[in-house]
Amino acid sequence: RRTTHHRTHKSTKRKKQHHAVPRMTDEKRIQKALAGLGFYHGTIDGEVNSYETRSAIKEMNKAYEISQSAAMSNEEKDALIYLGTLFTFDRYLIAGGNDKKTKGKRIQTALKIEGYYHGKIDGAVGRGTRSSIAQYKSNNAMGYGDTLNFEEEYRLVNDAKHKNDKNIDDTIHSLKTMGSGRYQPEQQPSVLKLQVPGETPQSTPAPDNSQTPKGGWE
Fold first, then answer.
1. pTM, whole model, 2 decimals?
2. How many structural domains are present in the chain?
3. What percent helix, strand, coil does the chain show, rounded to 5?
4. Which of 9, 75, 109, 115 is most buried (most C-beta within 10 Å)?
């Protein structure tokens, strides 16, 4: 008697796990800006109402003479969001390593600062990035093509780094000027002496210190 054995083959294929990339938010950019300025030392988690973040905002406001509280104006908030983006750009530009992803982010960041790339900085050099490279090379008399050699990449990244540094300095300066003129030292009220019409103003004689006042030390 023949017995047929039916084997059940379980699928050995594993489902690909898609790891969600943490989304960059304005709140995280504010924390990045505060960290770059040296006021925040916590985790970049977007919790701007946490004690650590609020303390950092207050310390910055006091240091730049903006206010004595942890509150932010819309102008100050926009400056911090922009500054957080600039600090991220700087990190990509100076990142070491020549692996594809690191190099791709470095080139995309530099092209974005120079105004040629408008896509997402993800390190994946695709059609959009190559098109931006070709346009950059054409506008800077580097010939044709959608790739960069070592010298061309160095020139692109170096120029972008200078521009980004200037943008950082200008934004920090704008933050500091938000507090200029708000805290003036208190001035002593001046005494106004009325003058009678027709009267010649007389100067007050200087006190005679030649004599020792009564009860004073000889």
1. 0.72
2. 1
3. 45, 0, 55
4. 109
